[in-house]
Each structure stands twice: as C-alpha cells, then as structure tokens.
Amino acid sequence: MSAHFDTSADTAAARPSTAGKWLVGLSMSVHDGLVWHYYLIDRAADAAAAADEALRRARSEAHRSPRSGGEPVAYEVRRMRQDLLGQWVL
After folding, report:
1. How many domains does the chain have?
2. pTM beyond 0.85
C-alpha cells in the first residue's frame, strides 16, 4: 500500500491545532476502479497514528458497505489546522 503524509511546516496563515485533527483518505479497489473513503481522525498523535485509526475504522464491520471494496491500496494523510480566524484548513 502506498502512502502520502502531508506534515508541512506551519505558515503565517495557519497555526497548528492542539486537537490533533487529521483527514485520512483511503483508496479502495472496486470492480470498476478506485473509490476513496475519507475519515476525520481526532486526537491522533501523528500522521501514522491517524492512518492506523482510519484503517481500523475501514476494516470494522460498522463502516463496511457493499461499495467499499477490499483492502485499501493507497492512503493520504493531511493534518487539519485552524487559521487565525478559527476556520479549519488542510
């Protein structure tokens, strides 16, 4: 499975969130292509912990659907931050 982690440095327009929010996208293979599922992970220590939690959720029966496909073939992790006005940005 391939991965992409966006842990870029903070800019003046964005400051780090103390909540540790992450958006994790998982690419699932289905019969006619790929389907992306996105999970908002709260309070993860880092990108790897956020990816692990998203994988756990994707594999749980409660989050499975007939369209979900098999195991993830790729994933992307982005840290969510709040700007100076409190708006959430990726």
Report:
1. 1
2. no
Q: Is residue 51, in this structure, part of any structural domain at all?
A: yes
**Host domain of residue 48:** 2-84
Residue at 30 is within a domain:
yes
Burial 60-85 (b: 16+ CB within 10 A, else e): eeeeeeeeebeebeebbbbbbbbeee
Residue 79 to residue 55: CA distance in whole angstroms: 16
* CA 87, 37, 47, 43 torsion-angle sign: positive
- Express each pLDDT in 47-82 by its tens digit: 999 999 999 998 885 556 665 667 788 999 999 998
